[in-house]
Amino acid sequence: MKTWKKITLSIVTVFILVSAYLAYKCYHVVYVVIPNSYAAWTTGDLIVEYLKTHNDRWPQSWDDLREAKASIESRGDPIYWNFNALPKMVSINWNADPKELSNAQPLGNEIPFRVVAKQDGSAVDACWGEDTEPNRQIYKYLKKRKI
Predict the structure, then answer these.
(1) 23 and 110 in contact (C-beta within 8 Å)?
(2) In the structure, what pLDDT confidence band is assigned to residue 23 with cuts at 50, 70 and 90?
(3) Is the pTM of this model over 0.90?
(4) What distances in angstroms separate CA 34 from CA 6, 29, 89, 98, 101, one per listed residue?
(5) Using CA atoms, how far apart are residues 141 and 35, in angstroms rounded to an integer?
């Protein structure tokens, strides 16, 4: 095989591999990272709203958070992700104690608890910034309330 054919074949192969990698990364961002980020943000908003409107009591189920959704919507504020899809995407520790969470001490910049996680127990994506990460939202609210 001539040298120019080998070079051309190598360039085409590298182009195909890089294109496939970039296509996968785009797919991952659009279909995994963005939905999970919006689901995380929405869940944090719902829990904080429930705490605000229920004397800092912790929600016991998705039905409780449905009340928080109605409260947010009644003010005209946005719900960033489909509420009915959240239980398939996000796991919540329904037995958490807001007083214990409020008293938890942070480890550096890390939030000292994870009461909201992905279904597999791993940290939720929050690519819109720190204030959209649900555990941080809950921690900031509880610290401000000093319950």
Answers:
(1) no
(2) very high
(3) no
(4) 40, 6, 12, 28, 27
(5) 24
Question: Residues, the chain, total?
Answer: 147
Mean pLDDT on 134-141 = 95
SS (H, E, C) the chain: CCHHHHHHHHHHHHHHHHHHHHHHHHHHHHHHHHHHHHHHHHHHHHHHHHHHHCCCCCCCCHHHHHHHHHHHHHCCCCCCCCHHHHHHHEEECCCCCHHHHHHCCCECCECCCCCEEECCCCCCCCCCCHHHCHHHHHHHHHHHHCC
> What is the C-alpha separation between 90 and 110, in angstroms, rounded?
20
